[in-house]
Each structure stands twice: as C-alpha cells, then as structure tokens.
Amino acid sequence: MEQLRKTSDYFFDLPPERIAQHPLEPRDHSRLLLMDRQSGELQDKNFYDIVDLLDEGDTLILNDSRVLPARIYGTRQISGSSVELLLLHTSGDDVWEVLAGPGRHAKVGDTLLFGDGKLTAEVLDIVNEGNRLVKFRYEGNFYQVLEEIGQMPLPPYITEKLENQERYQTVYSREVGSAAAPTAGLHFTPELLEKIKNKGVNIGFVTLHVGLGTFRPVKVDNITDHKMHAEHYALSEETATLINRTKAAGKRVIAVGTTSCRTLESIGMQEGIIHAQEGWTEIFIYPGYSFQVLDGLITNFHLPESTLIMLVSAFAGYEKTMNAYRHAVEDEYRFFSFGDAMAIL
Fold first, then answer.
1. What pTM was computed for the model?
2. pLDDT tens readout for residues 110-123
3. Domains plus CATH for the chain?
4. Do 65 and 206 contact (CB within 8 A), yes or no?
C-alpha cells in the first residue's frame, strides 16, 4: 500500500457550490449513494431507502454524542473589549481548555463576562498552541446556561447562519460533549428509525465526543507522519452484547459515521468478541488497515485529503472510493456536514 501513503493521493476537485450550506428538510430526503463494497458498483438512491438495504438481524451502531453550543461571545470585565471562546474539553471542576479570540483579550488573570454576566470565566493559564485554560462560574446547570447563550460551532466551510440549532444535532443525541456533530446521523428521523426497528434491525449506541481536530487538515506529505487528535469514547455492556450476538448470527454490524467506526475499531475484537470499554482513541485508519468489527459503513462525503476520506478508502478500497467521489461531484451530490450520504454495504 506504499503508493497510497501520499496525502495528495486523496485529493479530488470539488467545486465550492457542491458544499451544502444548509440541511435539507425533511432530514431523510437527502440523497444516498449506495456502493457495493465488493464490486464498487454504484446506485443513486434517497436516504429513506436505507430501510430496504438493511436485513433483519443486522445491527446499526449510532453515535449518541450531543454537540455543545460551544461558541460564546463576551467581553473583558476591565476594558469591555470583545472576546470569543470556543470550548474544547474539560478537565473537571468547571475548568475548560478553550480557543480564545482575539488572544490578546484573554490574558492570564483576566475575568471574562458572557450572557450579561450569567457566565464568567477566569483565565488560568496559556497551554497548547496558545489555547487558554479557564474556570467558569455560573448559577444552576452549566449546560443549560450554555444552551441559553452559546452558539453551534459550525465547521469553517459553512458560512450561512443556522436558523434552528437542533438541525446540527442528531434526533438521538443525548451525551453532551462534542465540538462537532457526528453528521452521518443527521439524516435519520424518529419515523425512519422506527421503520428500521420494525424490520427487525437492531440499533445500538456508542459515544464518541467529536473534537475540533476532525477538521484539522493533514499537513504532512506522507500520511503516516500525521498525528491524530485524541477523542473520548464509551461503549456499553448492552451495545457490546448486541454486537457479539449479531456477529455470532452471521449478520452485519454497520457503523453510522466515521466516529462510530473509529470507536468500534479502537476497541476491536479480542478472541472473537468485543468488550464494553471507555477511554481515549487516536486511531488513524487508512488503506492497509484490517477491519475487525465493521461490515458496513454509512457516512457523508468528506473533505479532500482528510483523514476521513482515508478511512473510507481503507474500508471500501482506494480506487472504488475515488471513483464514487468523482461520480458524486459529477452528479451534483451535496458535500460535507449538511450534505448527502453514502452507504458502503
């Protein structure tokens, strides 16, 4: 696989107008490009057709992480100058690592005010790459305060304002902690999930809190030199049992999204079974990787030269993946977070 180690191997030409700026309504009316994993054959479908592509006894694995409205705008207490924080992750006790802009307005010792004082932050330290450590103070529940005053940290390629913040959440999101949505799941509606269950398809949940590193470009020429960001994951005993039962019956385990995929493959099979687990993963999947758990993948269309298109190429095969992406561009599929979907089965 040496010839596929160059970042430039994963480039494709994407006209800007192919980047979806807003979600479709209803959610399940987005398009779906079906790829046969073995042959590479492509079929154009709609997302609601997914019911017909799943078999009784198959298991869909969904990431139930919920996006924090993690972008907050405020002022310095002393000068009144504007400041913006983007919450990254917490170490507990209301201490968070954040991106601050502009940095000069977030000096160590500063007190920052948000939402007319509903939330205050004391800057404790400057850490990795200029990020700040801050300690928040508030009354009541921190996440409820964030819901009131925060905004969704939409990816940089989405420039239009999102009117309804829930459209950047999956309908089954429940575990708060992501800086970006697990976007393959945005296509599901409660009614579609009910149809899938009624067909006898199992639905299991994992949690992987998506970090902003998911948007970090690969800046090295050789992909093996790229260091992945760490993300926290959890897989319950209930989901582990469901996966093991599905495998034992000879049915398929299908990940919804690269986040669910990375969670399952981070845990992997030991002696033919998967165990409940939680921890941090930096798994980087690219061609040459041998999948242990996955039998199918539902995912959106990803950025050129991203770790995500490398993961898809590892699962579906490089030539088949790049051919599918060429087809998607030519056939005017919508790309990225609010775009259309692809099923590799």
1. 0.91
2. 999 999 999 999 99
3. 2-67+164-344 (3.40.1780.10), 71-149 (2.40.10.240)
4. no
